[in-house]
Amino acid sequence: MFLFVCPTRLANTVVEASDGSVYFSDSSTKFGPGTFLLDLLEAKPHGRLLKYDPITKKTTVLLDGLACANGVALSSKEDYILICETWKFRCLKHWIRGEKLGSTKIFIENLPGGPDNINIAADGQSYWIALIGVSMQTGSYITKFVFKKYLMCRGRID
Hints:
5-stranded antiparallel sheet; 4-stranded antiparallel sheet; 3 helices; 15% helix
């Protein structure tokens, strides 16, 4: 965890903990709303999971290098947070309290579409994950050909 220094370009989803802390995703530190699809074409992970502490009034980066951080959900016990990585077709589990504090593991992977949001279900034990209709094969095809990517974005990728 480190102090937030890069401005948020594409804040996506937010969830508030009972202590007032706010967890949110920043889909890309490089591309904003008008150029968001360039993030997929570039195929580099620019997403982050952030935490805002209302007491210290500071924002910290909990995870960075995420492939389109797109959706967060807090567990019912508030000991971990789930975060979607759209371009990797998976969701991660990041512990924010307890013995596993700061550790991260894959929660679910190889989804049939890119996870676009996640919410805790009414039972407090399971989650609803929204998927966008892009498959791993489509994503791989798009990012595979450098010159085609260049033509598609008219040279706007560094």
